[in-house]
Each structure stands twice: as structure tokens, then as C-alpha cells.
Design brief:
The protein is mostly helical and 413 residues long. It has 2 domains: 144 residues; 206 residues, Up-down Bundle (Growth Hormone, Chain: A). 76% of the residues lie in helices and 0% in strands. The chain has 18 helices and no strands. The radius of gyration is 20 Å and the shape is globular.
Length: 413
């Protein structure tokens, strides 16, 4: 591990909460695809499987910010454990209902309950912020977390699909639930690094973090960005099937995540001066432009190369986004603010995958790559329209990060 990353773990407890966060985040990439695999194997109904997966994503998009808001007020331990128990109970109901053929409405209710799963990635980033706020190490920490996210998305679906197809249909979602339980309960047992809660008894802490104009721009942009991700996933599977190598889709999508992983690792070693909103807007533009070569794709090897290049802009943009959230959201609402961006992504993924599926059915997989291209153009438009809001961090937001000199000093501003 390069020395800047090694230096992160000099802080007591950082290795433990990072490891717990890795386990707790694995279900993010395992549960949805695991449910699709499980239900399609047990019932042969892909429509039902997709609808259940979308229900989980949308329920998480609604519940996630509310759970994180409670975490900011009452602390991670007091909120994450009950929320996780609700999610685990719902997952157990789903597995039994699918196995024994219970009514479909039970499946959907269970999927809504699973959506109470906490945003573990936001919890870990909040712990890093509590440790390194106002220092260059926080930029490196956010970069490391972006790499961890991509590792989850590289290995999670492979593990989930592999277990459900090679062992028994419920194996993938079952392991995802086990990862969630182990990760969250291990994390919440670590009290020394838990960020201090901020009860909303004073005027500054009232309301939702989404009231911040800068956060509104970030969330709106990442709805369009999520549409890119959701569309690329669906269209790539369809394209691989048209090419006669459907199983290769997982490898090609892993290459997409690998590109982001590599870029995130390198980005964390770099130091930047100047306003972060310019780098953020440049990253959004790069993500949009990288979708254009997909319109010219002719075979799977070319697609893999194009997606690897496209992935290079993802992690740096996400890292800069997390830095901007600190400047536009009060410290007492940091976890909620981070979760709102994840919610925007989740909503975008659901929209992008749905629209892409419709286009594929109507015009084929190659035409489907027009969906992420359009979504990228929308993201750029929203980014430019909201750019002025990002140039004006609210007074007192993100602690001391409102001071321009400190923003530049810590290289993440």
C-alpha cells in the first residue's frame, strides 16, 4: 500500500472500523442481484425478480436519508442496530417467502423492509471526517473509501450470483444478510471512533440537509449519473447476450468498476489546489464524454476497453463530491448529506435501468447505449446550471471548511 494510504491507519481504531465497513458494504452490491438470481431460479419470472430488486433500491432511497438523519442526531450505535435488525428480519421473511411460494405481496413488503438497511459507506466516511477533518489525509481517506466501494462492486455480484447458481438459490441473499449483520454490529461495537451525535435542539440543526442549495445540485446531478450506471449495466448484459456470450457481461462490468478503482487509488495520492467545484464539474463532463464511444461499440473486447476508460472518471468525481458535501452541509448533518447523494444515485440507477430496458426491447442493445449518453448530457447540464451554488459554501457549513485558505490547504476543497 502506498505510504499516504498506510498513514491513514496510524489512528487508533481506523483499521477496525474500515474492515467492518467493508463487510457491511458488501450487501450493497450483493442483495439486489442476489434477489434477481434467487427469484428467477425459483419462479422463472424475470419480471417479478426485477420488480423486487427495484423495490429494494427505491425503499433504500427513501429510508436511507432518514436513517442517516437519526444517526446524526443520536449516534451510530443507537440507530444502526435497530435499523439493521429490521432489514435482517425482512430479509429472512423474503427468503422464506420465496422458498415456500408465499403470496407475491409478502415478497414486496419484505423488500420494503430490506430497504431500511443503513448506508454503511456514509457511516465510515463520517468516521474518517471526525478523525481527519481539515487535513490533507481526509482527501486520501475518501479516495480509499471509493476504492473499497469499487472492490465491493467487482466481487459482490460475482460471489452472490455464483453462490445462488452453484449452491442453492437463497445462498446469495443469505450471505449478503450475514455480511450486513457482521459489519454493522462490529462497527457499532467500536465506540471510540464513533462521531459525536448532534441532537437537534438548537436552531442551526433543524430541518433536512437537503435544504442546502449546494447539496440539491449534487443530488440532482447524481440522479442523472446514476442513470448512466443503471443503463450501462442493463445494456451491457443485453449486448453480451446479442454477441452470444452473456456470461461475459459480468467480466466486462467488472472491468468498468476496475477502471474506477484504479483511478480512485491514483487520485488519492495526488494533491490539488484551487476550488473543488471546478474539478467536480470537469469530472461530470468526463463521465458524459466517456459514454460517446459506447455508441460505436462493435464487439465485447472493444466494449471492455471503452468501459475501462469510462470508469476512470467515476471515482475522482465521487471523491470530490464527498469533499463538496462537507462544505455545503452542516457538520451536524454530514452523514445525512452523504446519504442523500447515494439516494440520488439509487433513484438514477432505477430510472436508467428501466428506460434502457425499454429502449433495448424496442431497438436493440446498441441503441440502448444512447440512454447513458443522454443521461450524461443531462448531468452536465444540471452541473453547469447549478455551478454558482457550488461556488458559495454556506457560512459555517462543514465546520471550518468554509474558509477558502483551509480548503486549498487540505487539497480537497
Amino acid at each position: 500500500m502506498p505510504s499516504p494510504y498506510r498513514a491513514l491507519f496510524a489512528a487508533p481504531g481506523s483499521k477496525a472500523f474500515s474492515a467492518a465497513g467493508f463487510l457491511g458494504r458488501m450487501p450493497l452490491s450483493m442483495m439486489g442481484i442476489g434477489v434477481v438470481t434467487m427469484v428467477s431460479q425459483l419462479t422463472g419470472r424475470y419480471g417479478l425478480a426485477g420488480a423486487l430488486s427495484a423495490t429494494i433500491a427505491l425503499a433504500a432511497a427513501v429510508a436511507g436519508p432518514q436513517v442517516s438523519r437519526l444517526v446524526d442526531q443520536y449516534g451510530q450505535r443507537r440507530v444502526l442496530r435497530p435499523a439493521t435488525l429490521v432489514s435482517l428480519t425482512a430479509a429472512a421473511v423474503l427468503l422464506f417467502a420465496a422458498h415456500y411460494g408465499w403470496p407475491e405481496w409478502v415478497l414486496f413488503v419484505a423488500c420494503v423492509g430490506i430497504g431500511c438497511v443503513p448506508s454503511v459507506g456514509s457511516m465510515i466516511r463520517a468516521r474518517w471526517a471526525a478523525l481527519y477533518r481539515g487535513t490533507p489525509k481526509l482527501h486520501t481517506a475518501y479516495s480509499f473509501e471509493s476504492v473499497v466501494d469499487e472492490m465491493c462492486f467487482v466481487f459482490g455480484p460475482i460471489i452472490s450470483i455464483g453462490l445462488s447458481t452453484a449452491w442453492f438459490p437463497e445462498a446469495g441473499p443469505l450471505l449478503a444478510a450475514c455480511f450486513l449483520a457482521a459489519g454493522v454490529f462490529w462497527l457499532t461495537a467500536q465506540r471510540a471512533t464513533e462521531p459525536e451525535p448532534h441532537p437537534r435542539e438548537h436552531k442551526d440543526g433543524g430541518g433536512t440537509a437537503l435544504r442546502a442549495p449546494g447539496l440539491q445540485v449534487l443530488v440532482a446531478t447524481f440522479v442523472a449519473t446514476g442513470a448512466i450506471f443503471g443503463a450501462v449495466d442493463v445494456v451491457t448484459v443485453a449486448f453480451a447476450e446479442e454477441e452470444g456470450h452473456k456470461t461475459a457481461a459480468s467480466v466486462v462490468l467488472a472491468v468498468y468498476a476496475l477502471g474506477s478503482c484504479v483511478a480512485g487509488a491514483v487520485f488519492g495520492l495526488m494533491h490539488f489546489a484551487g476550488a473543488p467545484e471546478r474539478r467536480w464539474l470537469l469530472g461530470v463532463c468526463a463521465m458524459a464524454v466517456s459514454m460517446i464511444p459506447l455508441l460505436l461499440v462493435g464487439n465485447l473486447p472493444f466494449l471492455a476497453v471503452a468501459l475501462f476508460v469510462a470508469g476512470l472518471s467515476i471515482a475522482p468525481t465521487m471523491i470530490t463530491t464527498m469533499s463538496l458535501i462537507e462544505e455545503h452541509v452542516p457538520r451536524a448533518q454530514l452523514t445525512e448529506g452523504m446519504t442523500w447523494v447515494s439516494t440520488g444515485l439509487a433513484v438514477g440507477v432505477a430510472l436508467g435501468s428501466s428506460v434502457a430496458g425499454w429502449v433495448i426491447d424496442a431497438a436493440g442493445a446498441r441503441a440502448g447505449y444512447g440512454v447513458p449518453a443522454v443521461a450524461g448530457a443531462v448531468a452536465v447540464a444540471v452541473g453547469f446550471l447549478g455551478y454558482r451554488r457550488l461556488k458559495r459554501p454556506a457560512p459555517g457549513r462543514g465546520g471550518s471548511v468554509g474558509q477558502h485558505s483551509e480548503r486549498e490547504e487540505r487539497h480537497m476543497a
